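Table S5 (text form). Sequence records supplied for joint modeling of the two-component complex.
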Amino acid sequence: MTAQPTQPTHDLTANSQRCLQQLMRVWFDFERRLSRVPILQRLERGQFNVDDYRNLLLHLRQQVIEGGRWISRCASSFDRDYLDVRSEVIKHARDEHQDYQMLEQDYQRVGGDLDTLHTQEANLGTDALHAFLMHRASLPNPVDLIGAMWMIEGLGQKMAASWAERIDAAVNTGTPCTQFMRYHADNDDDHMAKLYALLNRTCQSEQDIQRIVKTARVVGRLYAMQLEEVDYDDSL
Amino acid sequence: MSVYINSTGHYLPGPPIDNDNIERILGLVHNKPSRLKNRILKSNGIKTRHYAIDADHNTLESNAQLATKAANECLDAVGFRRNRLGLLSAATSQGDFVLPGFGSMVQAELGLPDVELHTSHGICSSSMMALKHAYLSVKAGEQDSALVVASELASRLFKASRYEAAGDVPDFNAEFLRWMLSDGAGALLLENAPRKTSLRIDWIQGFSHADAFPVCMTVGHPRESQNGKSWQDYPTYAEAEADGALLIRQDVRLLEHVVKLGVDGFLRVMGKHQLSPSSIDHVLCHYSSDHFRGRIFDMLNAAGMMVPEERWYTNLYERGNTGCASLFIMLDEFLHTQTYDEGDTILCMVPESGRFNNVYMHLTVVTE
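The corresponding structure-token record, covering 604 residues in total, follows.
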């Protein structure tokens, strides 16, 4: 149940303010879920090593590459009534669609082999997350993907810097090997401001709020699953 | 059945100690002034606090005695007869003895006959857990009255000699709380009918997140993480102390979680009880540091749920952070120094960093 807000943020409309409040709660819950994920527990508790980091990047790469696709698909699903939203999402897709290159460089700098990286299968969580996002992105005017952006941008804005700091402390290579995470930590603030504007534009009704929040929740569950899978051996 | 807070009391030992005199009492570690002190004090904003130890590190009053003075003030304010009391519910982070429970020591000191006894264990939120037990006991009709006492004597942990015994290694996380915590006690009397002016307890709700986060504040954990090694796992207590396992320590990197979880719980209780910021007349929040006040406000503003700043009351800066006693001391001073009217609502929040337990309480001012 949502409480009634009285003071809006960033000139948010009443609907988007209520939506934002629920998204914050979804985010807090997501952070707790992430804290229970084994590889992140090791990072938090100082038990993380260079093998963990290589493995993490190996598993993140698929989602990072696929990220460019669902955002582009999302853009193309907005019709003429949402031209402004479409432009905004296209810009966003362009910003992100090559950031996997930073990830690849980080991977090499911690002694990872590019062939291994390129032949790595997406893990079960990544598959599920990608499939869900592509499905939603293929529907007409997928405003609910604002919820997905809130979660994924949030990882950059709220988590990436502290992860990078802990990784640098745990994995002492001498050369910068957390560029990918640091890039997101430095740039996602700006993305969040744009996201607030998108929220105002697209969150028009209670139904929109519910759909945006639900998509955010699904993304949180599947993202956590993707990170849990880092520690499982997928081969049967 | 409704439950009312019918009286409050608090006790702070000795004179107020300003920032320049902290090390005169607690001592200089290895005879050197702290390099961290000013930075931490600037961030927490505390100007004065109280200690139950003197500069020679004699304990002038025990923790149970501090609790007793607060309890006596609370009971005497309404002329409550001791032999009518049904339940004593006590809280502290560290009693004078490891065993028995703190409540037993306070009961003996107060000379209360035949009470039902409860002791809650924890850090800042232990007082709220003790209060919830008392509240439910009266609400269920098991007791007509209950005294809840929360007391801390943290200064004994902060003597220079304790740090010296743990070696020469600088330990920011162990020193941090030396400039945060101090001594004091607070007490509340609960009854099943209001007196002249009372606070009705509408609800008390806690959320604990220990399953999701590592420990953030500890006593008993060695300096370096050693797979859960405890102070009790050393052959001798001297070895535990040398390894820094008896120091009180805060993992400051994790403190940001307290703010987020505190706000999360706030949004949850506001939603559950269909409250809006305009329906809250007063907020009493136990934040440990002025730094966190700003962070809490930022997040509540983002959620569109900020209770106007002038409705937030605190006495942190003058009375210090007295751990589990803070909220009770704050409530007592609020009632005696601030203006409020019948029907006013008070939201109390205690976000605890120990392992992230947050407790909220909603009160309404009523008259007989």
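Note: The longest strand of chain B covers residues 197-208.
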